[in-house]
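Render Dehydrogenase in 3D.
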Amino acid sequence: MQVGYKLAAEAFGPAELVRQAVLAEEAGFDFVEISDHYHPWLDNQGHSPFAWTVLGSIAAKTSRIGLATGVTCPTVRYHPAVIAQAAATLALLSEGRFVLGVGSGERLNEHVVGPGFPDAVSTRHEMLTEALEIIRLLWSGGYRSYEGKHLRLRDARVFDLPDELPLIAVAASGRESTRIAAELGDGLFATEDKPSIVRRYRDAGGAGPCYGEVPMAWAADAHTAARAALETSRWALTGWKVMSELPNPVNFDAATTTVREEDILEKFACGADPGRYIEVAQSYVDAGFDRLVMQNAGPDPDGFIDFYQRELDRPIRQLKPNNARA
């Protein structure tokens, strides 16, 4: 079991994210994971710095903790040749601590560059497949070209390659995306505690680590925590079909007007009761995830990191799937 800390790039500026990463390393987290967005989900979150610059700074200011994108879309806003180069560079600067998390993307971030974000999910999966093939091709060394249905590469070479290439974790939920994760990735990334996601990944031949984001909101009392999560993170309850389609923060604001505090309390571990946090984390362990990402939507990141170190680190690391218990 490894435990990571989610850097909420939509909620904090770049310097603050670096500071939190340093605190996370001191607190014993195994890795930090940062979202790679152009826009925040909601305007009141107020931030969305360039994830790759933040990761470079974290690599320079830490020595042990792993780094991961959670996740990057290497098809529209970025060409996969750029991501192949960026990931290789970050792997070198971090001395092998980087994991490249990729996914098929959200309209929220990808539509901004102009050509448009495909409406058909099948097209997005085709593009992600081609992007992964291009990244793997460039990482094999030498000058490379590629002619795909959607993406092309012309005489490109990544000159600075690490001896050990970064692990690629592919975001998935449905049957096709889990197949892509199993066949073209080295691991799985997901945000829901559904056993079917990991099962489909394993059935398709996937043998790598499985990353799951665990929703939490720390504050001294559950009401304060839930209110904070409702203000900034209610979008998380909309489901992937909504999250991948809406184009701007104002649309997410409109789509989440009916989310209640009770809904947050049902989904998130809120407040300061360690038992509730263990309960929510256990659901991800039972679903088959072995890389748990602590995603705090509470108002006090320092308080959460301290709470995790004092109350959660050891019990969460000791969790086992219920069916494996004696």
